Structures are given as structure tokens and as C-alpha cells.
Amino acid sequence: MSDYIDFIADRGRGCAIAAHRGAWHAAPENSIEAIENAIAAGFDIVEIDVRQSADGQLFLMHDDTLERMAGRAEVAERLSIAELSAIRLREADGGERRATTNATIPTLRKALEAARGRIFLDLDLKDRDLMPRVIAEVVDMGMAGQVDLKARVDSPEARRWLAGQGDMGGVPFMAMARFANGNAAELTDVLEAMAPFMCETKFDSLDTISERRQRFSDAGIAIWVNTLDPVSCCDLTDSAALADPARIWGRLIDAGVGIIQTDEPAALQSYLKETGR
Hints:
Blueprint: H1 4-9, E1 16-20, H2 32-41, E2 45-52, E3 58-60, H3 67-70, H4 81-85, E4 88-90, E5 100-104, H5 108-115, E6 120-125, H6 131-140, E7 147-152, H7 156-163, E8 173-179, H8 184-194, E9 198-203, H9 206-210, H10 213-218, E10 222-226, H11 238-243, H12 245-254, E11 257-262, H13 265-275
Helix pairs in contact: 2-5
């Protein structure tokens, strides 16, 4: 398996597939099983959500509470890792109509071990102040070249916070930025100066991204876009892509997007194979 930065920088690769919370249609989201499904399917990246337990251990869970994924009202971070690890997860993306599975809440360490040498990981920290703790664990496991950590850079406060984090131990950094009316020129300058290996972008218009694709490319910055229904931009959603993939995923690739995060990774994979993209 190549180094993450080298993989992203490879101009010969097609659009990379980032499976949101793993390949969760046949396993609970943020579970080891969802990571294994993504590996088996041949996806490139798995996005997982990281929190810290009451006794200081890192674990995977998106929501503050266990209600959706386990039918329990507790705040996840108020439980110990032993308590969390005993909780069985609901199938797929949870909810009261979903059955309970044998899959349990994994630690970050178990997720890293499952992914080792097999798939890249995008670590979404639900508390940005966990960054030093997560870096330490990733470095301790010798996996700095296989994960990314990300943070917002589209405000002076966000950039000051990031500067205060110091050395990232060789863990690749992905910037997060929203291009909105009036900030695109300045934000592009900021990104060029920082030169992160990727930028997760949001935008008011896809043209804002496509018009700057050469500048991003020259700076070595790959563009990541989410087509997840709740957080997509400009109606470029997974639901619309299922009906007309060329109008959604195709337009993004034409605009210079190199990584797409989706809740429909199998459909995106089929589209990429069919079109050779």
C-alpha cells in the first residue's frame, strides 16, 4: 500500500472514493465490520468519527448520544471504554427500526489495526482539541502515513488554533474551507501558502472551485467534496447522483474534484468503472 500523500498526489489515479462512516449499508456505521466491508469492496478511504471516553480512551461514534445507533439515551463520552465496548450497535445507520447486531463500538486503536496496510482513514474529530491525543496514538501505532487529520482554515481564529497545535508527527493534514461570496480570492491565497495535501471544500458555486483548479493543482492540493445529502453543496447530493451520476459526480470530477465522500460508495464505484474515471 502506498503512502497516503503519494496516493493523493498521483496524477494518474482516478477519482478516489471515500466511504462515509465505512461501508455501512451491510454493517453498522463506524464499526470494524463497516471498515472491513469498505476494504473488501476496494474503496480508497474510510471516514470515521473519533470521540474520547470518560476514562480517556478514543473510540468511534458520530452522535453525542447512543440513541440512534444503540437505542440508549446516554451521552457516549460519559461512559468508560469498558462500558462502550460492551454496547451492541444497530444495523446500517441506526434508528429505532433497525435491528441490533453483534457489532460493538470499537476503539480507534482497533480501527487503525483493522485498516493497517489496507485502506486510508479520514479521522473526523468530534472535538478538535483531541488532535494531539489522536496524533500520539496514530504515531505510536506507526500509521502516520495512512491517515489524515483535518481542521477548518477559513477564518483567522481557526488558523490561529491550528498554528497552536504544533508538530503533527508526520500525519498528513487536510484543510477544511468554505468558499463563499467575497472570500474566495483570499482563501485561495491562504491555501496556497499552507499547501495541505487535500482540502475538503464547501462552496456557494461549483464554478468557484473549477475556476481555481489549476492553482490548486499547482500547489499540490487535491480537492475533496462531500455529496452526503445533509451536508452537500448546490444540490450535488448522493440522492441526485443515484438518479443521474454524470450530473452530480461527473460534474464534480470535471470541475477538478479528486476525492468524493459519499454514503453511496458502491454506486460511485460503478460509475467510475463504467466511465473510466
